[in-house]
Amino acid sequence: MTSMSGAEYLASIYGSEKDKVNCSFYIKTGACRHSERCSRQHNKPTYSQTVVMRNMFVSVQNSAQSADGSHLSSMTDHGIQEQFEQFFEDVFFECQEKYGEIEEMCVCDNQCDHLRGNVYIMFRREEDAVKACEAMNDRWYMYRPIYAELCPVGDFREASCRQFEIGQCGKGGFCNFWHVKPISQQLKEILGRASRKPSRRSRSRDRGDSKRDRGGDRGSGGGGGGGGDRRDRRRSPPRERDHNNRRGRY
């Protein structure tokens, strides 16, 4: 059995716990709780399929509207999820329409500063990720500047906390692996169809007949259980109006 050369050995342990030079957390998750103070190197890629927009999502629970949480008294779980999914749609379609086809996207629900509200997007092509990164750094969302950079993460599954997915993470929101905030099955289907046929019009088609196709007719804004409710929800005035005015949030 031949022994490995020094270069081969370093390549074999790159990003692992045995690697004393490169930060394994930064390589796996694109973030490190020590930030620039880390004793190991954070080698930022010059080319990557993945872009991270740091602390972009501000959840209702974490907003500083009131110290005692009274601003949440009128918010239902459904309303909080709707607000998040509106944000998710905004970012997904804005990036796919302007920069290129998206393979994966997720938002971190962690509480620690280095992961809280991070948005990770993996584009199909590296060139699109580079283009998106350069463009998003000159843009704002909801009156806040966007901070985007290329990210070394190549496997979202490896970056995610397995214990959180089954409801057993003992570290809670301060875990150093991604606690991915889930989206509804309905939204997954909409995004999946848009990814298979990306175009500027795909979103309105996927969400049911548009106002133009229906002559301005809009369904009720009901929510909840059955298939009929889901179809109505797709055409609900708030969501449709928000889509048309998305540029107002960027």
From TrEMBL:
GO MF annotation: an example: zinc ion binding
Cell membrane listed as a keyword: no
Compositional bias of kind Basic residues: 194-204
Gene3D superfamilies: 3.30.70.330
DNA-binding is among the record's keywords: yes
UniProt domain C3H1-type: residue ranges: 17-45, 155-182
Stretches for region Disordered: 191-250
UniProt keyword terms in alphabetical order: DNA-binding, Metal-binding, mRNA processing, mRNA splicing, Nucleus, Repeat, RNA-binding, Zinc, Zinc-finger
Subcellular location: Nucleus
Record-linked SUPFAM superfamilies: RNA-binding domain, RBD (SSF54928)
Protein name: Splicing factor U2af 38 kDa subunit
Originating organism: Meganyctiphanes norvegica
